[in-house]
Design brief:
Layout (H helix, E strand, L loop, with lengths): L11 H12 L23 H5 L5 H19 L4 E12 L3 E16 L2 E10 L14 H20 L3 E8 L6 H17 L3 H24 L8
Parallel strand pairs: 3-4
Antiparallel strand pairs: 1-2, 2-3
Helix pairs in contact: 1-6, 3-6, 5-6
Length: about 220
């Protein structure tokens, strides 16, 4: 499957896996050990698979979405840089030992200030078994966590902070939606074709599902493929 000639392809195996995951059709036998980390048991709906950090799959999902978002910005004519060193993004509880680059640095994004875009992905089913579970709370908490960790440092260093939180079903947190809508406005000013404007959300959404599918397929027994 190739989406809008953007070279974003998904194999038949990946497509079946992500379709089952989205429809909550069991993917794995309950209580089978994870063949990747061998530390936890798989659950039938794939929640361990999308959170297992033992292989590069978890980082692959993050980096795939980041790379696609960067490409979207570049195609829109927005000046940006991936993995940009900014010398102030750290875990405030651990200090400079956790110094890290911005996932994407967008130049002159707001009032002449550069924007640090920080991506994070989470399952919408986190906390499902807890009392008082609310649909959509996982992505909201993920966004709030990023703000609490990095926004103050960005403001103090004359930067804007943009948390870009998404869930494994493809939903986007409010700040991510606002960011993409503004990107879409830039695209709209450069093209009169509606199709050209719609690629902003569709490409990011496809990248999220592609990344999740890769994590699921890596753990599905070969006989099931």
């Amino acid at each position: 499957m190739n989406i809008n000639n953007t070279l974003q392809c998904m194999s038949a195996v990946e497509y079946r896996a992500i379709l089952k995951y989205r429809l909550m059709i069991p993917l794995f036998p309950d209580d089978d050990p994870c063949p990747v980390c061998r530390k936890c048991c798989l659950d039938s709906f794939g929640e361990h698979a999308v959170h297992c950090k033992e292989l590069p799959g978890f980082k692959y999902r993050h980096d795939l979405v980041r790379d696609v978002l960067y490409d979207v910005l570049k195609r829109a004519g927005i000046s940006a840089k991936k993995e940009a060193p900014v010398n102030f993004l750290t875990d405030p509880l651990k200090g400079r030992s956790t110094l890290r680059p911005a996932d994407i640095l967008v130049f002159g994004w707001e009032g002449g200030k550069h924007a640090c875009v920080d991506l994070t992905g989470v399952s919408p089913l986190v906390g499902l078994r807890d009392h008082g579970f609310v649909a959509g709370q996982a992505i909201t908490k993920a966004e709030a966590g990023k703000v609490a960790k990095h926004e103050k440092a960005c403001i103090e260093n004359q930067h804007v902070f943009v948390p870009f939180a998404f869930d494994t079903f493809g939903a986007l947190a409010p700040d991510a939606v606002r960011f993409l809508k503004r990107v879409q406005q830039v695209v709209s000013s450069n093209t009169a074709h509606v199709k050209g404007q719609n690629f902003v959300f569709s490409r990011v959404g496809f990248a999220i599902q592609k990344g999740v599918a890769a994590q699921l397929v890596a753990r599905i027994p070969t006989i099931s493929l």
